[in-house]
Amino acid sequence: MFDPVCPSGLSPIRVGDKWAAMIIRCLEEGPRRFSELRIPLRGITAKVLTASLRTLERDGFVVRTVCPGPARHVEYALTPLGRSLLEPMNFACAWMEEHWEELLDAREAASPTG
What we know:
Arc Repressor Mutant, subunit A, elongated, alpha+beta, 114 residues
């Protein structure tokens, strides 16, 4: 999913925008800072990441926490609702792996150069 050559955009099942599922996966192991999210999400701009995080927060999937102290920072974490998406996402990923070639063939056939 995080591999630059992986066309995860082929997934017919989406939560939120193009980046939402990948952000949710990044938060699967626990809270992360904004800068920590940008590492695995290499192709995302700061503006788009901010917008995606705000949408996920608005929809109740992610919580934003300001951590006090001398090195004040913000962390993002999955809410219980956000965690409830992990299992359906696993099923969607398994389905996509099983039908990968068909999805690629259909995309190629529908492209103007295909």
